[in-house]
Design goal:
The chain is mainly beta. It is built from 2 helices and 5 strands, in the order αββββαβ.
Length: about 80
């Protein structure tokens, strides 16, 4: 759960490398845990809200495939 606590609803991430044509901005909408208790975040494409995906919180925080762009409005942490 520690990784999930660092990923917050409303955060926005970008695909890496962020300067690549077609990079997208993804907003964290919600969380879920599967049977193995691996926390995942549900992401929504800000350009196309019909496009969603589930990514493990570890992958989001790992900085290999995604980079945090902004925290939720009013979040000072």
């Amino acid at each position: 759960m520690a990784l999930q606590s660092k990923v917050k609803e409303g955060q926005v991430y970008t695909d890496l490398p962020s300067n690549r044509p077609g990079s997208r901005l993804w907003k964290v909408e919600s969380f879920c845990e599967n049977a193995m208790e691996v926390p995942h975040a549900r992401l929504i494409d800000l350009r196309d809200p019909t496009s969603t995906k589930m990514i493990s919180c570890r992958a989001l925080k790992g900085r290999t495939y995604y980079e945090l762009v902004s925290d939720p409005a009013g979040d000072n942490s």
